[in-house]
Automatic annotation (TrEMBL):
Ranges that cross the membrane: 57-83, 138-159
The protein, known as: Ion transport 2 domain protein
Annotated ranges, domain Potassium channel: 84-151
Database matches in Pfam families: Ion_trans_2 (PF07885)
SUPFAM superfamilies recorded: Voltage-gated potassium channels (SSF81324)
Family matches, as InterPro entries: K_chnl_dom
Keyword terms, alphabetized: Membrane, Transmembrane, Transmembrane helix
Length: 289
């Protein structure tokens, strides 16, 4: 029975590590516990009247919640591993009152101290296999901290690339380029560069799906609001007279179709055309495309 309880704890740890792996290093369209948390917070925030202010907090709060969920599951799982073997399989420092506490409380304390790599030493594993398992928890705690920092450092550049593209599209819309300005070599270069930026954003949505749940603020920095203008530019390029402009327009249109496919598969599930997907994307972010 003791080993069965310990296996349950090990299962909780593995669930947390699997979710961390698929969120940070091997994202899949099926998501995991982290995606469920983020989606639930996003949908809940959209119900509030002061929607823009609340939705703007979803991304950061969701990341904090997910990291807390990972850490809490690891701590609880390892505590359950220790629990059936506490206190007889552990050594306590002289004068320590830890052995007088409930076994579950001591197990939680030891797990928390170990995962935080504090190593206070007032409770130490005595059996051989526990002396191996306990340092492994410290390694997992160190990996969790490193992964969290890496996640934060990676997500914000992805958000910057998305907002830069949106602002660039807003500036182009305000400049109102003429047909002659689009139907030339400079226009071809412009459409080609936009296609490259759209592809980068598409990759960001694949690699960092949680970026979807970050609100972009004002309309001119919101890709949800500006992506429709990118589609209009692609259509103008496709009907141009210059062959290099038509090619660049096709590239931009293809990049936008690919982006729409990713948005629909992972987040929106409309099953419609790229125009339908972009309209749903704008509506989901409280924008008019």
């Amino acid at each position: 029975m003791e080993w069965l309880v310990s296996l349950v704890g090990a299962g909780l740890v593995m669930i947390s590590l699997r979710d961390l792996f698929h969120t940070l290093w091997h994202p899949t369209r099926h998501g995991g516990l982290s995606r469920l948390v983020m989606t639930a917070l996003w949908r809940l925030a959209r119900r509030f009247r002061a929607r823009r202010r609340v939705v703007g907090l979803v991304g950061p709060l969701a990341m904090v919640t997910v990291v807390g969920m990972w850490a809490g599951t690891v701590i609880l799982g390892w505590a359950i591993v220790y629990w059936p073997h506490m206190p007889e399989s552990f050594a306590f420092s002289p004068g320590s009152k830890a052995a007088q506490e409930p076994a579950l409380l001591d197990s939680l304390y030891l797990s928390l101290v170990t995962v935080a790599t504090l190593g206070l030493g007032d409770i130490a594993p005595g059996e051989g296999w526990l002396r191996v398992v306990s340092p492994l928890e410290a390694l997992v705690g160190f990996a969790l901290l490193t992964a969290t920092v890496s996640w934060v450092l990676a997500i914000y550049p992805a958000l910057t690339r998305r907002r830069v593209l949106a602002i660039r599209l807003a500036l182009l819309r305000d400049a109102e380029p003429t047909t002659q300005q689009i139907d030339c070599t400079a226009g071809a270069l412009l459409l080609d560069s936009l296609a490259t930026e759209v592809v980068r954003v598409r990759i960001d949505f694949t690699q960092y799906a949680e970026a979807y749940y970050f609100h972009d603020g004002e309309d001119h920095s919101s890709l949800a609001a500006m992506v429709g203008y990118a589609a209009a530019l692609a259509q103008r390029g496709q009907t141009a007279r210059q062959p290099e402009v038509r090619l660049a327009g096709d590239l931009l249109a293809g990049a936008l179709r690919d982006l729409a496919a990713i948005l629909d598969q992972r987040f929106l599930h409309t099953g419609g055309t790229p125009a339908d997907v972009f309209a749903a994307y704008a509506a989901d972010h409280g924008r008019a495309s």
